[in-house]
Specification:
The complex is a heterodimer. By secondary structure, chain A is an alpha+beta fold. Chain B is α+β, with helices and mostly antiparallel strands. Chain B contains six helices and 20 strands. The chains are: A alpha+beta, B alpha+beta.
């Protein structure tokens, strides 16, 4: 490498003295060519973020052809909800904010004007190692008046770094440290590996006494964390980070043990107790208490992640639901505070609503960065649902018909029946029958871990397809979350049905409902109803099988055999018993 | 009076931060990635070299004085070379190794001219750099720094790497510039910001992973406001280590026979600042007119570093060493005045 540097310097000198061609190692030339190409491609997707008056700003990176841009929350927040994004083609594109993550300092913007925006290739930040070359692209010191990004080259100086939040927001956990120059204006911009793959979002530097200029220490949010949150950010929500419901400390032997645990937490319900040793969270081994905090930061709230711990009985493999880091409304206040500060910026003219071409792309609502995006994501879910609408029997609950699913317990002859009419939801297992009203009165059945919630979920499944998700209740699209035993992420939509909240997980590609979770509150295990589809089954394209879980325990698996309809019974049938 | 207040303030800072919470140990840490498959040359070099760099914690933590710095392990692993700074003004310096172990280090000795100190750790099981005079660099050469700048790494986290190119190898000419440094010798100047808070004492390595320099203290040109990013070359450091090991600057309180009729600072005309903490530095507050000290050229605000080449780490050790010198005998003081080091002969 020393020789490479010297050779390159020599090449520079040779320009002034063309009579003598220096001999260049072909490897050097090809490495240089590769780097030039990686930077050229990466620059295409790099975005300069400006205010409406074209003042500003920061940087960003485009990750979808329809114009979704990842940037920092601290870049977008001074502009409120409207901004302009400059790209390497020399054009400015109008943009609005979609979702924001004040805790993790991320925001997603949407640019308009093209459907073929150049996008960055998403890399694997878990494979980033100290000593690898990398480069940052962006708009440092707002230099890019011609909208061409500035590229700075450097090393990965450290990985898995943690930078404390200011208060409870702008926390950088598990981040990448680089000595590529990161200066004011680089914020929100991309960090690429040597191959030009996106590995992080630059957002922070260590400055201290030398003023706000680079001192060789910049930090990037890992692209893994950013992509974990991306699905949620596209929902237009103010998204939140997670807490575990327990704290840890290092014991004298250096083990990471539970030092405090809330009895209301999912971890407690899964059996974790004071003094147990925490071994692994998600896909990362834990050997210090600080590591646990570092790993936790990359997950959105509501995610269910694997937890390995050791108690007196031995090593336990479990999975826990993450709780929200902030109280309801707490983040709204923080966001309001930061945009109020932003409003004081000179030149931030109030966008004239009547003239703004993107006026209809913004909708203010509590808990949302821009509710418009929640509406449009729900539209997408509805479209998927409509395209996959099964041929349901003519008529339905509104036509005074009873819908009936008939099946049996998997591997047994025990008969199962789910039936619902405009007033009641019925359940029968062998000769035991029960029923609940279509509205209300469900909570105790879930809390008592009864099998009846299968009927509630089957009715939800039916209505979802028959009437569409929007008719079910108060509906919010939450984003993308993992489901135990499934690869990748699924769309998650929350439906408030009175005292019970249903979380509906649907496949990103097919829109099929994979899981419905019925919550009474966050302190009790929900009823988890998983739907299996089998094209060979007579039920297809309806679910051929449902599995009911509470916690991590299987409660019942039902094989459906047929769906039919009956006239509504005039007299009340079986009186509903309490489980 | 203002001077005195400032100095007492400085002492209090040192005192407060000698308490355990001055030691930044509760920082989050994370796993050192174990690379799978083949590593590139640089990745492998970095994985190996960073094992010989340690994080050091001691006094400081307020008013621009960091309580942490970096150190390089040399030789068989039992010695650590680092910058001589206020961080080391504690009985035991806390050493945190690359694999997260916490060890205590004792001071072997210091070299005031080079502002280097040598520490000893028992059973470190750390690989040491070979410190050799022939490990030299030339301008244009690629180098890397390995330091715990800004205290970013804690526990088993790896120290930070930065890349750079040697811009110059030259004497630190502080006479004609605004660079006020005690060290005036040869330095390696690099083109990137290596000398950040906490980086002092860290390693400068070449592409072969050889130790070519020790990162110097933060240094700012008072005229231009520019920070200099420099290292003390391996050849200078190697000579300095030899001097320290040769015992030229013995530790304070070395067992020397007490004089029957010893010197006392007050009798010499030196009034020290109030002794308020166990390690109050031997700062001179006032010098009595026409005293031996005044005649020798001692001035107010001088800091006594050495007495006859024995290290003075506190007012107590200053008095202890004076007690070994007969009142009739002449002796030499090394004092720091601003950024100047002066040798002063006291002649009774």
């Amino acid at each position: 490498m020393a020789s490479i540097c010297l050779v390159l310097l020599g090449a520079g000198l040779a320009i002034g003295a063309p009579q003598q061609e220096p001999e260049l190692d072909p490897e050097v030339l090809s490495a240089q060519q590769k780097r030039v190409e990686a930077m050229r491609k990466a620059s295409m997707a790099t975005v300069g973020v400006f205010g409406l008056d074209s003042q500003g700003g920061g940087s960003g990176v485009c990750i979808s052809a329809d114009g979704y841009v990842l940037t920092n929350f601290h870049v977008s927040s001074p502009f409120g909800h409207r901004m302009r994004c400059g790209m390497n083609d020399g054009k400015m594109y109008e943009a609005v904010v979609a979702g924001i993550d004040p805790t993790g300092d991320l925001a997603v913007l949407k640019m308009y004007g093209r459907d073929d925006f150049p996008t960055a290739v998403i890399g694997d930040s878990d494979r980033v190692r100290v000593g690898q070359w990398c480069f940052a692209a962006g708009n440092p010191f707002v230099l890019a008046t011609n909208l061409q990004p500035t590229v700075t080259y450097g090393l990965i100086s450290g990985v898995r770094r943690y930078q404390y939040p200011s208060g409870t927001i702008l926390e950088y956990s598990d981040c990448i440290q680089t000595d590529a120059s990161i200066n004011p204006g680089n914020s929100g911009g991309p960090l690429f590996n040597a191959d030009g793959e996106l590995i992080g979002i630059n957002g922070r530097c260590s400055f201290e006494k030398r003023g706000r200029v680079n001192v060789g220490v910049g930090y990037a949010i890992s692209i893994k964390q950013a992509m974990n949150f991306y699905g949620n950010l596209r929902s237009g929500r103010i998204v939140d980070h997670a807490t575990l419901g327990f704290t840890v400390a290092s014991d004298p032997q250096g083990r990471v043990v539970v030092s405090n645990i809330l009895e209301s937490s999912d971890a407690y319900r899964r059996g974790l107790r004071y003094g147990d040793e925490v071994l692994r969270l998600g896909d990362r081994d834990i050997s210090t208490s600080n590591q646990l905090k570092n790993v936790l930061g990359i997950f959105p709230d509501y995610w269910r992640v694997a937890l390995r711990y050791r108690n007196e009985q031995g090593v336990q493999e479990s999975a826990i639901r993450l709780q929200s880091l902030h109280q309801p409304g707490e983040l709204d206040k923080i966001v309001e505070g930061s945009s109020e500060q932003g409003a004081k910026r000179p030149g931030e003219a109030k966008p004239a609503a009547s003239k703004d071409s993107l006026a209809e792309k913004y909708e203010s609502r509590r808990g949302f960065g821009n509710y418009y995006f929640n509406r449009s994501e729900l539209d997408r879910i509805v479209k998927l649902q409509e395209s996959r609408k099964p041929a349901l029997p003519t008529g339905g609950p509104d036509d005074a018909l009873q819908v009936r699913f008939v099946g049996s317990v998997l591997g047994e002859s025990t008969a199962v029946e789910t039936r619902f009419d405009p007033e009641k939801i019925h359940w029968a297992l062998a000769d035991k029958t029960s029923s609940v009203p279509v509205k209300g009165g469900w909570g105790s059945w879930i809390q008592n871990q009864d099998p009846l919630p299968i009927s509630i979920a089957m009715r939800l499944w039916y209505q979802w397809h028959e009437q569409g998700p929007r008719k079910l209740g108060e509906v919010i699209y939450i984003g993308q979350s993992p489901v135990l035993g499934k690869q990748g992420l699924l769309d998650m939509t929350r439906v408030v049905l009175g005292e019970v909240t249903a979380e509906v997980y649907t496949s990103l590609s097919s829109g099929d409902i994979e899981l419905i979770e019925l919550f009474t509150d966050r302190q009790t295990d929900p009823a988890e109803v998983y739907f299996d589809y089998d094209a060979a089954s007579p039920m297809a394209p309806m679910p051929s099988r449902v599995r009911l879980n509470y916690g991590l325990e299987s409660r019942l698996v039902v094989e459906w055999l047929k769906l039919d309809t009956l006239p509504v019974e005039k007299t009340e049938g079986v009186p509903g018993g309490q489980p | 009076m203002i001077d005195l207040a400032l100095r007492i303030g400085a002492i209090l800072v040192v005192f407060l931060l000698s308490t355990p919470w001055g030691i930044a140990e509760d920082k989050p840490s994370s796993e050192v990635p174990i690379a799978q498959g083949s590593l590139s040359g640089l990745e492998e070099l970095f994985q190996n070299a960073q094992r010989s760099v340690v994080k050091l914690y001691g006094a400081g933590g307020m008013r621009g004085l960091e309580s942490y710095q970096s150190g390089v392990v040399i030789g068989d692993g039992s010695t650590i070379l680092t910058s001589w700074s206020t961080v080391l003004d504690v009985d035991k310096v806390r050493v945190v190794t690359y694999d997260g172990r916490r060890l205590d280090a004792e001071m072997i000795g210091v070299d005031p001219e080079c502002e280097l100190a040598l520490l000893r750790v028992e059973n470190s099981k750390l690989p040491g750099f070979v410190l050799e005079a022939k490990a030299q660099v030339r301008p244009g050469q690629r180098v890397f720094s390995i330091t715990n700048l800004f205290g970013i790494a804690a526990g088993n986290e790896a120290c930070s790497y930065q890349k750079g190119v040697v811009m110059a190898v030259s004497d630190l000419q502080s006479k004609y510039t605004g660079l006020r440094s005690v060290y005036r010798g040869k330095v390696i100047v690099v083109d990137v910001m290596t000398n950040n808070p906490g980086a002092a004492g860290g390693a400068l390595v070449d592409l072969g992973g050889r130790l070519v320099g020790v990162i110097g203290k933060e240094l700012r040109d008072e005229q231009s406001g520019i920070w200099l990013n420099y290292s003390i070359p391996a050849e200078v450091a190697a000579a300095s280590v030899e001097r320290i090991l040769a015992g030229k600057t013995r530790s304070a309180g070395a067992s020397l026979a007490l004089a029957k009729n010893p010197h006392r600072a007050l009798d010499l005309g030196m009034v020290l600042i109030p002794n308020v903490i166990p390690k109050t530095p031997a700062y001179i507050d006032r010098v009595r007119k026409d005293s031996l000290a005044a005649r020798a050229g001692i001035e107010a605000n001088d800091l006594v570093l050495l007495v006859n080449d024995q290290r003075v780490d506190s007012q107590r050790s200053f008095e202890q060493i004076l007690q070994t010198i007969e009142r009739g005998d002449s002796f030499q003081l090394l004092v720091q005045r601003g950024t100047e080091l002066l040798r002063v002969q006291i002649r009774p």
